[in-house]
Amino acid sequence: MASNMLSPDYVPNDDEDFMNPMMEEFFRQRLMEWKNELLRESGQTLENMQTTSGQEADIADRASLESERSLELRTRDRERKLISKIDAALRRIETGEYGYCEDTGEPIAVRRLIARPIATLSIEAQERHERMEKTHRDD
Known about the structure:
By secondary structure, the chain is mostly helical. About 65% of the residues lie in helices and about 0% in strands. The chain is built from four helices and no strands.
C-alpha cells in the first residue's frame, strides 16, 4: 500500500467500509509515527542517564538523581510495553485482524481506534472485562 495515496486530511469514519485499504493505511501510519516518537524519546532518556554524572557530592543531590533515574526507568518500561502493543497492532494490520474485537469479532468503533489505536476490545467488551476484573479483585 503506497502511503502517498493517503490524503493528509483524511480521517476514517463509520460511513465507509470498515478497514478498507485507506483506513488500514491511516492506522498503520499512525502506529508507526507513535512508535518512532517513543523510540526517539527513549533514546533521549538513555542519553540523559549516561551524561548525568553519578558523582554528585551532596547526598540530597544524589538522592534526587536516583529518584529521577528511577522515574525515567519506569517511564522507559511503560514505553517498552507500549511499543510491544504497537508492534502487535501492526501485525494485526498485516493479518487483517486489526480493528476487530478479540472477544466478539465485531468491528471496534472507528472513534475508539482513533483515540486508542492499540485497542483490541470494543467499548462494550472492554467494560465487561473491567467489571470482571473488579469483581475478581474484590474477592
